[in-house]
Give the backbone structure.
Amino acid sequence: MWHRQQTARKELAGAGPEDHAARPLMLLMAATCGLIVASNYYAQPLLPSLSASLRASSVTVGLCVTSNQAGYAAGLGLLVPLCDLVDRRRLIVSMLAVNVLALTAAALAPDITALAVALVLVGVSGSAINVLIPAAASLVRADQQDRVVGMLMTGLLLGVLLARTAAGTLDRLAGWRLVYGLAAIGVAAVAVALRSRLPALPASAEGSYRRLLGSVARLIVTEPLLRRRMALGAVGFASFQLLWTALPFMLASPSYRYSLPEIGLFGLLGAAGAVCAQFAGRLNDRGHAHRGTAALLVVLAAGRLACGQNRHLAIVIVAIPLLDVGIQGTHVLNQARIYGLGSRARSRLSTAYMTAYFLGGAVGSAAAVSVYICAGWTALCGVGLGFAALALIVWIRDGATVARTPEAPAPVLSPPSAENQTRSY
């Protein structure tokens, strides 16, 4: 086993992602990222089905999405920092094993409480994505890291885009339990494959876990720019989850009567955000991160206004890509700005930012169904506009700092950014 790991590591160290030795492993890791991230989105189109099957209220079922996002945030804050202190191969395989058990528990959940607990564990263990991507980048030369990270990000994007559609289709075939059962089998398969294919990835830092977490906290306290961009990210993802958690209930209502497979197809509208991510990166490269953020927040607000016109579903269909562009583009620029604070701290900056990001998503999920059930779709869009207004306030405060310190381009997708995510997963 040791000899096979050392041989694989030597092959990968000198191979590009196109080379025969490296490409199968990178494709496997990309597929793993897609399968894991999809688990964060299966529940959204299934909410009406879960409510009927488990005899739970819409508000209670909506909290399943909240529990998943909160679990992911907890994993980012508490487990991902371990990748600097322990063997990453062992950490990845262990987290995937927990993910399999959690998905199995979700498939067998007898009631809504058991399902919510299982989805918390799915989220916690799903943060393995943030260990996989830097691990993949560490296996190739520096000049090849962009392509490897791009390959894994493609896997992530496909997982996000197809998760809702696949969940809706499988639910129609055999019910929602099949969705989580097949997800468990898929993750188990890639976990076994990674266990045999990944070389040893020993700890890259010394020190204690407590000290590592303390250093993240110190960054948050001492870096105002980090705090502002954490706030922007949290508000943006809250707005994103606000829409997607409540949308299935609106589409399944008597006004529309869409089936779950049809509801799942709406997830494909998120492809617009992938295109915007590259555009936002170029804005940052040219030193326009602050002005670009303002433009994207205006797009976000426009999308929110358009979403309120749900009497004409065509307008909502046009508004959803606008929302995705605004949120995903802002997310990229947020990361570009905070990573400019220093390359040596990027792992800790990523931990702080992404934890706040998913906590914001949990807040949006928790508010979505309650607001929709109690006050309707128009009120829900009003809350979304409130989030957009809050983001603009934070942007104005950020602008005061930019006015004193002119913007400088920060490399959003440079090789060190292998430690970071450029989309909201």
Observations:
- The radius of gyration is 21 Å.
- The longest helix spans residues 145-174.
